[in-house]
What does this fold into?
Amino acid sequence: MTPRPLIIALCGLLLATPLTGTAAQELSLEEAVLMSLRSNRELRMQQLQPQLRQTFEEVEQSLFDARLFAEAGYGAEQGQTLSPGVAGLVESDTSQWYLQGGLRQEFATGTTFEAILSHNQRDIDNPDNLHQWRAGIGINQALLQGRGSQVNLVRVEQARLDTDISRNELRGYTQALVANVESLYWEYALASRQVEIYEQSLEVARVQLRQTTDRVEVGAMARTELAAAKAEVARRQQELIDARSRMRVLATDLTRLMGLEHTAEPPLPQQPTLPAVYLDTLEEHITFGLQQRPEIREARLRQQRGELEVTRTRNGLLPRLDLFVTLGKSGYADSFGSALDEMGGDDYDATIGLRLSYPLENRSSSAQHRAATISQHQVDLSLENLNQLVAADVRKAYLEVDRSREQIEASAATLELQEEVLRAEMEKFEAGTSTALLVAQAQRDLLAARIQQARSIADYRRALVELYRLDGSLLQRRGIELET
It folds into this structure.
């Protein structure tokens, strides 16, 4: 049967028209995330892992499936043997064939049930030999080692936990993918905005060069001022080349995460804008992270798995003591069919008893239990350490969100002041009291302020994404639900 892929339900995301990859089209964040969830090849690979782990559950559960069995055989013996009432050895020449089949079932309680129907004929060359049919049942119950479903279902429960662990790994991978796409998207948006700013600044530098040239030609300014204006144009051209190259590289990375073939002109992103976000308190984010972070949930599942392993290996330290009961009815006759009819007679057999076995040193079981106990202690310590790391991660991410938000306000104020500085310097230049170099420096400072403002908004968007990833709430906030 073809495995059914995991479904990623996206509630609240734009279930939109597939992207065509043309430059005229604007790529929204929702579309970028959606395309990555639909087409990212690594994610599609990861989606198969829980299904693979689920097959191991079925393998472990199959141990308690009923089993039919059958056996047939023929044997011959020739030699000497002792015979009652006869002194010495007598010649023996016998042959036999047998046929048996039945049903065997093991239960989680430590009980084994077996039902058998068999036929046997000895000395088949002797016409007076009897045919024997026997129908019987046997029950074996573990009294110490192997007793109870708590022990016998350990492997099944561990396989189920492995499947849950795999689902959490998929959740963590999906969350990391979405965070990576969103972070890369805002970096790509920032690069696009930088290209626009450099294009505008290049045009301003060219206008400034023309104005300086005009002034030099009419003798209102020294020819030496041309060098500063030309250098500024060249600088802007270099910065624009680097910005366009970086934008193309980021577009390539984003396209790959979205599972699309790289195009020469990828869709342009939306410009970074300040989102309307209300943050919970730091303590609330930490509490949520300690509950929902995929790594935390996975560690807790591993803790449960280790507890089951301790239970299983502890049971291995016990002696093997089994209670067994067999009951049977037999029929004898001189023909195959008649022997089957005679099974309704008075012939029966019954056995009840105890079977005990125990290795004298039991070193293997002792070592396994000791290893399971040590491993469980390691898992417990690992979970405690992970709780501390998650709390620290969330705290640092929360502080970064605060810092980047404050940077937005600071960069806006800086930009406003730099605009005033440039305006004043331009007025001085028009009045002949400033130089082209000072104007270029003011333009350069304004350019840096404009880029820093765009960067601070993009950094804030990325800081929010990182906070939501680290507290485990990113998929929930984006309306993404993983289903099997």
In short: Confidence is low (pLDDT under 50) at residues 1-24.
